[in-house]
Amino acid sequence: MEVVERPVVLVVDDAPSSLGMLCDALEGAGYTVLVAADGESALERLELVVPDAILLDGLMPGLSGFETCRRIKADPALAHVPVLFMTGLSETPHVVEGFACGGVDYVVKPIRVQEVLARLHTHTRNARISRLARDAVDVAGMGTAFVDTQGRIAWQSPQAARWLAQLGPPGQWPQALAGALRAGATLRVATAGGTRLSVRNLGTATLGETMLLLAQERGGASARLSEAALTPRETEVLSWLAKGKTNRDIAEILGMSPRTVNKHLEHIFEKLGVETRAAAAALASGVLD
Predict the structure, then answer these.
(1) Residue 249's CB: how many other CB atoms inside 10 A?
(2) d(Cα 211, Cα 48) in Å, to the nearest integer?
(3) Where are the beta strands (DSSP E) in the chain?
(4) CB atoms < 10 A from the CB of 58, how many?
(5) How many CB atoms lie within 10 A of CB 243?
(6) In whole angstroms, what is the distance from residue 60 CA to residue 65 CA?
(7) 115 with 107: CB under 8 angstroms?
(8) What is the CA radius of gyration of the chain?
(9) Which one is predicted more confidently, 282 or 194?
(10) Could you give the angle at the alpha carbon of 7 between the alpha carbons of 30 and 76, nearest 5°?
(11) How many CB atoms lie within 10 A of CB 164?
(12) pTM score > 0.85 for this model?
């Protein structure tokens, strides 16, 4: 029997008893509901669990909802969690502050339960998709970064952030990466850790930003993998292959058919110049951890 994971939502309000109907509706819609009566209690709960979304009152005794949101967004482990304000503060300055401190939505009380459910569903789905997409390349042992039209880092995945930090202060990153900003270029940069960072230009993404694919090279195998120019999906397949997974295992993990996995492996073998699974796994072992 398949176990379906219930998304978790944290409701933060100084009068939680008044939200009984909403909490019942959330439970009925398949959410696991956690409740905190103030900002301090909410932050304590967040030390134990990372919810899929937070419904947050703006006006509470002690730590306000806006300051609570700022603290949540300042924590890298929680920054991805969507915060929806649900408050009686309806003036424009309050709404502006709600978004300025990191909220993704703003609902004015008295709330309409079905509307809150619809907004919550959209934001939790988008946040989960965004997080999976941004972390996918990191899982395969690589990182991604986006550079805007001014040569500034617009966004970087967690793995890319760790590697880019080895290039020195953030102000030096564009200079170090300048050679990779030509379409189709691949740049190799020496890092403070004594390794080389391979930076491949994947072309222009949204808003004119340039998408860069980063990989750390530790030796001949790393260079060979980088030069093979595997696609992100092929890299994921190879990563799981190196961990000893079968085609069926990889298919279930990545949400594709075993036949599609086999096709990816054919392309991988050709690009790496190997003929067997064992040879490909040996090449990737220790590189795509």
Answers:
(1) 15
(2) 35
(3) 8-12, 32-36, 53-56, 83-87, 105-108, 143-147, 153-156, 186-190, 196-204, 210-217
(4) 25
(5) 15
(6) 7
(7) yes
(8) 23
(9) 282
(10) 160
(11) 24
(12) no
Letter for the amino acid at 61?
P
- Asked if residue 217 has pLDDT above 90, the reply is no
Whether a cis peptide bond, with omega within 30° of 0, leads into 110 is yes
Identify whether the C-beta of residue 10 lies closer than 8 Å to the C-beta of residue 54: yes
Q: How far is CA 198 from CA 20, 183, 195, in A?
A: 54, 15, 10
Per-residue pLDDT, 2: 38
- β-pairing, 196-204 with 210-217? antiparallel
Point out the least confidently predicted range of 50-54, 115-119, 193-197: 193-197
Is the pLDDT assigned to residue 167 strictly greater than 80? no
Phi, psi of 37 (to 5 degrees): -90, -10
Residue for token digits 């990989």?
215
Tokens of 241: 């292959």
Non-local (6+) Cβ contacts of 98 within 8 A are 58, 66, 69, 85, 87, 106
The rounded percent of the chain whose pLDDT value lies above 70 is 78
Residues sharing a CB contact under 8 Å with residue 162, sequence separation 6 or more, in sequence order? 143
H or E element: which one contains 73? Answer: helix 65-74
Residue pointed to by tokens 């669990």: 49
In order of their start, the domains of the chain are 8-135 (3.40.50.2300), 138-284 (1.10.10.10)
